[in-house]
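During the second half of the funding period, the structural biology subgroup turned its attention to how the target accommodates small molecules. The most pressing case was pyridoxal-5'-phosphate, which had performed well in the primary screen but for which no bound structure existed. We therefore specified the complex as follows and requested a full 3D prediction, including the ligand pose.
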Amino acid sequence: MKLSPKVDRLGTETAFKVLAQAQALEAKGVDVVHLEIGEPDFDTPRNICDAGIKAINDGYTHYCSSQGIPALRAEVAKEMERTRGISVSPDRIIITPGAKPIIFYSILALLDEGDEAIYTNPLFPIYESMINFSGATAVPIPLREELDFRFDIDELRSKITPRTKLMILNSPQNPTGGVLEESDIRSIAEIAQEYDLTVFADEVYEYILYEGNHYSIASLPGMLDRTILLSGFSKTYAMTGWRMGYAVMPPQLVDPVVRMITNSVSCTAPFIQYAGIEAITGPQDSVHRMVEEFKKRRDLIVEGLNKIKGVSCRLPKGAFYVFPNVKEVGMECKELANYLLSEAGVATLAGTDFGEYGEGYLRLSYATSQDNIKKALERINTALSKVLG
Ligand SMILES: Cc1ncc(COP(=O)(O)O)c(C=O)c1O
């Protein structure tokens, strides 16, 4: 069988590979601490589960609108008004099975050979993978540790060419936990308008923020019509397995993306969308409790990592990842991640799993208990002292 050459351009998400490797070790009896996978370890709140079960019992088990049920889209529109002061019609809101499909569909709908897309590097790997798959050129802009993993705005300007069509932002960020400042976002908005760029604003970690308020580029004048604003339920409500996300779209993209949904998955399961309505409109205290606990874990892991010889770690402002600098250990980060898994039973990801500028770093997810974090820190310390003496 001769496959299309384009499948070679489709990358992947290493977290799932490392999870499988770690599980294979566990099947052999090895005790592994999981710091690789990026999902809240909390249960989906009871009220949301009950709403989903009720919707199944009420018969919401058939096909529904490809774009998403009107009742959920109306609630997302209200959420946009509440959280960002954005007034948007539910006609511009699209619900998908997870946030990820919005990345897949919008990039395919927008980019072609000859186009360029600027994306921060390191970044959630699906972006680079999809830009490459579309045939466009992926133009990385390095995140700088000394800028708390933000990027230099002049460097952004220097990457723009007449072919630049899309700029991808993610704040709070995966894998670094970095958060863009309001001044960064204002400058990016000016640049986007000056050069007529579309902005993809991935805001799936909007609620997992430890200081200040979330700031969305879509709320700036003139930006809503050129921004694909992505958010969802996976991280905020610990609903990764339910598969549901949403986007606010520029008007021209709504119909093509909805057609892609119809051509691929038809729709997002309606009973899950009813659970989504409960997530948005119901009590939010479980979200606040989860974020408070993440903050304690963040402090614990950053303090612990900074005590380990060869490791230094900044205090991230959002998401549930740390991105420690491990350059002094003197191994390539991929080799180091493999060593920590096989030698210490700690599953982590290499910074380069998120792009070339991730070399010299590891990504650790602290979406696990404080006891597991302490165990991982001890094990990493022991394993690295064998390397560094
Ligand atoms: C930055 C970012 N965007 C999107 C997603 C995808 O989320 P979902 O599970 O809702 O598809 C993730 C998941 O890790 C992510 O880190």
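Two results from this model are relevant to the next phase. The mean pLDDT is 97. The pocket of pyridoxal-5'-phosphate is lined by residues 38, 98-100, 124, 170, 174, 202, 204, 232, 234, 240, 245 (CB under 6 Å).
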